[in-house]
Design brief:
Elements: E1 4-9, H1 20-29, E2 32-39, H2 42-54, E3 58-62, H3 74-84, E4 89-98, H4 106-123, E5 127-132, H5 135-143, E6 149-152, H6 158-167, E7 169-173, H7 183-191, E8 197-199, H8 221-232, H9 236-250, E9 262-265, E10 268-271, E11 291-292, E12 295-296, H10 305-311, E13 321-324, H11 334-346, E14 352-356, H12 360-364, H13 369-372, E15 378-382, H14 388-395, H15 402-416, E16 419-425, H16 432-443, E17 446-450
Parallel strand pairs: 1-2, 2-3, 3-4, 4-5, 5-6, 6-7, 7-8, 10-13, 13-14, 14-15, 15-16, 16-17
Antiparallel strand pairs: 9-10, 11-12
Helix pairs in contact: 2-3, 5-6, 8-9
Length: 456
């Protein structure tokens, strides 16, 4: 079942007084599994708390919005602290700077923003940040502190987003992404990892198209997820699953997950047969965690053929391809690949692809490609560099002479396998054009650039 999240809404506001129950029911009927309602000033904090106490899947946050900075006092800070102790109050916010409307003087906004950040550090609470027309200053302020949290209703540019992500913040995407003039926000979504993205409605404000101009509500978050999926070129299922896990991580909430031996991304089905590797690549996602598009791939043990078959659908014709991949080097289990490929054929697999580091020959001390070609239709080989020095620095191979063996593997693959594609991860400062030219002009194979920090 799809699980959607609205990490920032205001269902405590008077706009929902007449039909709050119905709005919440519609949210749950639309498969929302998590809602955070955000109290922006003292008169709304109590209502936000009471809503969270009534519904298991609704939590709350409290803080003094920059518009209300002028009302900050020691008394309000004490009241704020009491609410922040509540077990369902997950963050301090929304707080920040709004130099677009300036309902409170800029100097007062800065003062109160810093006071609330100091408070968050003191009590070890994550923060929800509201920034409008003040990103440069906000980043300078946040860099001086060791805080994490959410940049709500993101309005900055791509460089702003990347800097916030580097500081440990999630970028929360509102309904404005559906607006015709929101090309800047769509560019942000395209170019930062999905693992750093959250979704929000900011209801009752900022309704997405086709409801623009009407009162917003949490159920409308599905329109935002739909557009993010299109921008990322993945399915709604992939997008919703990933963002749900992002939300659980962002709010430090427990969630259930099981290791997958067989998992789907887009319309490809992947087989996770090992976590072992022959390289220790500097960009490997395992250095962060074992989630790929919301699938947990850390193996407690290497799966048997029977365990994989239990998860494998009977009819594979509905998938574009079946891929030996996962979070490891599949050719470390060649016998399993050979045995499974026969089953995949019998279950009407259209195409069988292998993702590999191309080092099987040096490891096995023989040319495995002729045998391998009997079992797969396509191979994707991680080249990652256009020369040996760069390859060794990036991939940290176990074997001496790994790069030359990789090149020979690619040449052999061209002779025996129908489709051969080599790839490289776009690591910052790496000359991708050099690698592309090396692949296409010297090796004469197709080349694919893989995004940095974006798996799956």
């Amino acid at each position: 079942m799809l699980q959607f999240v609205d990490v920032h809404t205001h269902i405590e506001l008077p706009e929902f007084d007449n039909d709050r129950k119905e709005v919440i029911e519609r949210a749950f009927q639309s498969n929302l599994s998590f809602i955070c309602t955000v109290g922006i000033e003292p008169k709304f904090w109590k209502v936000a708390k009471e809503i969270s106490e009534k519904y298991e899947k609704i939590y709350f946050a409290v803080g003094l919005h920059p518009h209300e900075s002028k009302m900050y006092s020691e008394k309000i800070e004490c009241e704020l602290l009491n609410y922040l102790k509540h077990e369902k109050c997950l963050m301090l916010g929304e707080i920040g700077l709004d130099f677009f409307k300036n309902y409170s003087p800029k100097e007062k906004q800065i003062e109160v923003f810093e006071k609330q950040l100091d408070l968050a550090e003191k009590i070890k609470k994550d923060v929800i940040i509201h920034i409008r027309d003040a990103h440069s200053l906000a980043k300078d302020i946040l860099k001086k502190r060791n805080l994490r949290g959410i940049i709500h209703c993101f309005s900055g540019n791509l460089e702003d987003a990347k800097e916030y992500v580097k500081m440990g913040f999630y970028i929360s995407i509102p309904g404005t992404i559906t607006y015709k003039n929101a090309e800047n926000l769509r560019d942000v979504v395209k170019n930062i990892p999905l693992d750093n993205i959250l979704t929000e409605t900011d209801a009752p404000f900022l309704s997405p198209v086709p409801h623009r101009g009407k009162r917003n509500e949490p159920a409308f978050v599905t329109y935002i997820v739909d557009l993010i999926a299109k921008l990322k070129g993945i399915s709604v299922e992939d997008t919703a699953r990933t963002i749900y896990i992002n939300a659980m991580k962002a709010f430090n909430l427990p969630f259930e997950y099981n290791t997958k031996f067989v998992y789907q991304i887009r319309n490809s089905l992947y087989l996770n047969i090992t976590n072992k590797c022959t390289n220790k690549c500097v960009f490997c996602g395992k250095q962060k965690d074992f989630f790929v598009k919301g699938h947990y791939l850390k193996l407690q043990h290497e799966p048997t053929m029977d365990e994989i078959l239990k998860e494998l659908p009977k009819d594979l014709s509905i998938y574009d391809e079946i891929v030996f991949c996962g979070y490891g080097e599949p050719t470390l289990r060649l016998d399993l690949i050979y045995s499974l490929s026969q089953v995949l054929r019998s279950r009407n697999a259209k195409k069988i692809r292998l993702n590999t580091d191309g080092l099987a020959n040096i490891r096995e001390k023989r040319n495995i490609v002729p045998d391998l070609s009997k079992h797969i239709d396509s191979v994707s080989i991680s080249l990652n560099a256009g020369d040996e020095e760069t390859y060794n620095r990036i991939c940290n191979p176990t074997f001496q002479g790994a790069f030359q063996s990789l090149i020979e593997f690619i040449k052999e693959a061209k002779k025996h396998i129908k489709e051969v594609v080599v790839s490289a991860v776009a690591i910052p400062d790496l000359d991708i054009r050099k690698i592309k030219n090396f692949a296409e002009k010297e090796l004469k194979v197709k080349f694919r650039e893989r995004p940095y920090d974006e798996l799956g």
